[in-house]
Structures are given as structure tokens and as C-alpha cells.
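Figure S4 source data
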Amino acid sequence: MKQQRQSAIRELLVLTAIVSQDELRKKLQKRGFTVTQATLSRDFHELRVYKGPNGYALPGDLDEEDDDPGIKETLFNFGLEVKQAQNLLVLITRTSGAQPVAAALDYEDWPEMLGTIAGDDTVLVICADSKGAAALKTRMEELIG
């Protein structure tokens, strides 16, 4: 069932512009797949779906790891500013940019970073210590441009 659902997700993302998870959930339901938001989030992570300016999309070539939007492209497109508060970073993004940025950060698995929490236009990045947060802040600012 999971493979069939993920195949349907790929097909829908290629054929139509999907701007919300709820819209995709409804389209999947019409195809006989009843899914929760949590299931969709897991599928998005596994399929490496990202949210761009025109809605959700798949990486350019699923077999080529370097063709998906990496952290550099994601931060450049969505990131605006990074602020540090001790071992925490607050990353300000464009509206609706926090989720794809947090997902891209989580995917990077940087040693300084323990995890992220995303809102609509803000990502809280939790680091192990202030030194790691400072290093990560510098790296992010370079990627934002």
C-alpha cells in the first residue's frame, strides 16, 4: 500500500500543482488512499518532496542525490536572517518557508545541530552549545547570501 501511495503522490506532483498537504490528501482520497498529515509528512521525507514557490515538487531526478534541492538552494530561496541566542538559532524565512527549510536542515544531519522546530516563517534550530550555534549561524548566513 505504501509503495502504491507514494507512486500516486509522485504522479500527482508531476501532473498538477499542489500547494498544500491537505489538497494532496484530498486528491489521494479520491484515488482510494486515506492518509493522515503525519503519513504525508513521512512520505514527503522519504520521497524528498520540497515546497518551492509554485507548490510541492519532487527532486529533478530521483536517482541523482545531488539534483534535489539541497540546503544551499533551500536557504537561498527561503532564508532571510539568522539570529543567535546562546545555543539556539532563530532562522527567519519567507512566508511558508519554515517547513521546507527545517526539513532540509534536518536532512543535513550537521553535528552542531540537535534538531529543529518550524512554524510558518520561523525555524528554531537547537544546537548543543553556543560555539556550535555560532559556527552554524555563520554557515547558514553564507548559504543565505
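Figure S5 source data
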Amino acid sequence: MIVLHYTGMADAASAIARLADPEAKVSCHYLVTEDGQVVRMVGEDKRAWHAGLSHWRGVTDINSASIGIEIVNPGHEFGYRPFPDAQIEALIPLVADVKDRHGITRGNIVGHSDIAPARKQDPGELFPWGRLARLRLALPRPTRNLMDPGWSDGGFLLALERFGYDVTDALAAVVAFQRRFRPELIDGTIDAECRAILLALLLPRPQGDD
């Protein structure tokens, strides 16, 4: 898997210092600065402590099965803002390289909020997942031929769990799904659009956002 995070700290220097501090007990494989520098923090053959308590598609020890990439951004706590073009242009070839070398599928390139919905919001609703999806580096947001399957809320949560999310905290799981696949409206409400998007994602060939 590849897990994308934001640093959620005031600046890159603070984030790098914390990620390199053994006492902090948090680390990542790569960090991408806002001006497009890629900093290798931990070798890919080593376990980095980036995921924490998390779950995706039946995997619960995600640190043992993933590459963690921290993207410098102050996050929701310190003034969340869009990710600069230079940063995303550096991130894209990094993700592509890791994906190809490890044979990672698009469905296993996720955000921290996808794998820990009750705890995390990153990389957040401003992250340009669509740019990655158009390069087959993430799942696309389905936009074409959408059909509401009419599931009950319980049925939606069962489908969301089948897709990969931990639905123990149902509201958090719905919010995380919306943050990733319907970021313009993150209200925690299971509506027809959410049902239609999730159904399309569960089909063999999800229709993209381009």
C-alpha cells in the first residue's frame, strides 16, 4: 500500500525534525516539501511508524505493508491550504515509482483518513486526488452513468466495509468517504449521490472524473 499524509505542522523544518526524532515515535519513508523537494526519511525495506491504529481491506498492521509519504501542509489545525503545483508535480513521479516497483494497485493508494477515519483527516479535501487518478495512481471519483442503488444506511455501511473502510465508527467512515470521493459536501449524511458513487467504485471498471 501507499499511504498519503499531510504533516500537519507549522513548516517543513518542524515536520522533518519531528519525523527524525526517535522519541516522537513517528516516521515516514518520504517527505515532499511545498517547493517540490523529496526527502527520503526511512528506507523502503524498513518499517516506518506513519499509519498508527488503522485498517484497510482487512489489513490492520498497515505499517508492515505500506510506504508512508508525508506531504508538507499545515493541515486543518494550523491553516489548511491547497497543495502547490510544484509539490504535486514532485509527488506524482514518486508515487508512480513506488507503485510500479511494488506492484501496488490503485485501490491501495489511500489517504490517512481512509485507513483511520475516526482519528485522521489528512491529506484532506483539498488534496488533488483527481490528478493522481487521471494517471492511474489512485481510484477515480466516478461521475458518469451513476445510479442510486437505494441501499438503506446499513446497506451502505456494509458496502463501504466491503470497499475497504473500517465502519466501526459509522459517521467517521462516511465523512472519510466523502472527504475522498465527494469533497465539496462533507456532512456525514448518506445520500443518493454517496450511494451511487460507492456502487460505481465497487463495479469492475469505475468511471473516472475526466
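Strands lie at 2-6, 30-32, 38-40, 67-71, 109-111. The CA atoms of residues 139 and 187 lie 22 Å apart.
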